[in-house]
Amino acid sequence: MEFEMHRLSAQKILIDNRWEPGKSIVIKDGVIKDIVTFNPYTDKCLEGWLVPGFIDVQVNGGGGVLFNSDPTNNGVQTIMSAHRKFGTTSMLPTIITDTAETMRKAADAIALARSEDQNGIVGVHFEGPFLDTTKKGIHKEEFIRELSDEELDVITRKDIGKVLLTVAPDRIPPDVIKALVNQGIIISLGHSNATFEQVVMAIEAGATGFTHLFNAMSPLTSREPGMVGAAMNAKSAYAGIILDGEHVHPISAKLAIQAKGIDRIMLVTDAMPHVGSEASSLPFFDTNIERQDNRLTTPDGTLAGSCLNMASAIKYAYEQLGFPLHDCVDMATRVPATFLGLENSKGKIAKTFDADFVLLNDELLVSKVYKNGTLVHD
Ligand SMILES: [Zn+2]
Questions:
Q1: Strand partners of residue 127
Q2: Rounded Cα gap, residues 192 and 202, in angstroms
Q3: CB atoms closer than 10 angstroms to residue 227
Q4: What is the distance of C-alpha 146 from the center of its chain?
Q5: Where are the alpha helices (DSSP H) in 31-148?
Q6: HSE-up of 350 (CA within 13 Å, CB side)?
Q7: What pLDDT, on a 0 to 100 scale, did the predictor assign at position 169?
Q8: What is the C-alpha R_g of the chain?
Q9: Please, which of 62, 169, 259, 371 could form a disulfide with 79 given CB 3.0 to 4.6 Å?
Q10: What's the CA-to-centroid distance between 191 and ligand 1, angstroms?
Q11: Region 184-196: what's the mean pLDDT?
């Protein structure tokens, strides 16, 4: 597709970790062609903070749709557009533990969505099914299982973009992790009661991520650092964190970010279909997930993902945890882009990068979203 060259400017633009006033972004063919001095005669300066489009590596649903229940291109597009209103321009739709058949349908949907819309759906996250039943959370125990060729055929497909696989390191041995990483799969550790040593071995085998740090993993205690301790200690590994005020205490979140550093923490939503939907109760497998304020639970009271959107996660990090705004944005842009190996095209406002932007107002609410230079939400 050919786009005309056009320019975009805002009061403050996040460039190289600094808020730059007086700049205009030159966009051509959906990418940033140049960053030049603002021209008051030809350029219109938008009010607010212009930041890169957000990247969310864990999105179960949105707009009333759960990806597991509607693993189709239509389902993917509904989820994407629900989250786009909150600034997410790139995501990994996430399939939680389910049958091999659902995994295959999800992969087909991702492949189709990517052929039509390369830049928004950057891949897929399979959260499970190779998990530890003792930390299953809302994952269905009946579907938690060993890795077999049936799933391997799906997760090693080459037409589905980036593949993120959450595994329990006490269920998948290091040599299998190594073989998966060699096939280009990004391994994240989670839903596991693994010991510190088991986690260290998984990281040495090539795992690079932790799925929703603190939640559904063995805790940090005095004599056993557990998965949480291993995550904090693993300087090279990235950890996703759910900053909705329900999953993680603000002090725990703050300590984790300080321990790992901004460069290794990714804000994730772990969003359920409730994001971008007015419904308070939505179906989930053979039960329902109920929303009460910002908390989602199954009828037995198990915390069931979030109704968080990425703009709110950034706002929480800034207002409740007190990190500088550019760092909060980084955790939702540059850091997940680097984790996914997209650091040369996404997550920054720089020459040759994709022209995906979010304009935030003074209350840090999303006022405009641009994808490949085109206004997609206003
Ligand atoms: Zn989970």
A1: 96, 166
A2: 12
A3: 31
A4: 25
A5: 73-84, 100-116
A6: 12
A7: 98
A8: 20
A9: 62
A10: 6
A11: 98
54-339 in CATH: which number? 3.20.20.140
Distance CA 328, CA 338 (A): 15
Number of H helices, E strands in the chain: 10, 21
User: Catalytic residue at 270?
Assistant: yes
Q: Can you tell me the distance from the alpha carbon of 169 to that of 93, in angstroms, rounded to the nearest whole number?
A: 23
Ligand 1 centre and the CA of 222: distance in Å? Answer: 25
What's the whole-number average pLDDT of the chain?
96
Q: Rounded to an integer, what distance in angstroms lies between the CA atom of residue 61 and that of residue 71?
A: 10
> Looking at the chain, which residues constitute the CATH 2.30.40.10 domain(s)?
6-51+350-377
Distance of CA 168 to the CA centre of its chain: 19
pTM over 0.85: yes
**Residue 274 carries which DSSP code?**
T
The active-site residue out of 244, 270, 327, 354 is 270
User: According to CATH, where is 3.20.20.140 located in the chain?
Assistant: 54-339
Among 276, 279, 309, residue whose Cα is nearest residue 292 = 279
Element (H, E) at 149: helix 149-155
Q: Please state which CATH number belongs to domain 6-51+350-377.
A: 2.30.40.10
What's the 353 CA to ligand 1 centre distance in angstroms? 31
315 CA distance to ligand 1 middle (Å): 22
How many CB atoms are located within 10 Å of the residue 315 CB? 18
**Where residue 52 falls among pLDDT bands split at 50, 70, 90?**
very high
> How remote is the CA of residue 216 from the centroid of ligand 1, in Å?
7
pLDDT at residue 5, as a whole number: 79
The answer to whether 51 and 329 have CB atoms below 8 angstroms apart is: yes
> pLDDT tens, 62-113?
999 999 999 999 999 999 999 999 999 999 999 999 999 999 999 999 999 9
Q: How confident is the model at residue 118 (pLDDT cuts 50, 70, 90)?
A: low
Distance from chain centroid for Cα 46: 27
pLDDT at 233: 97
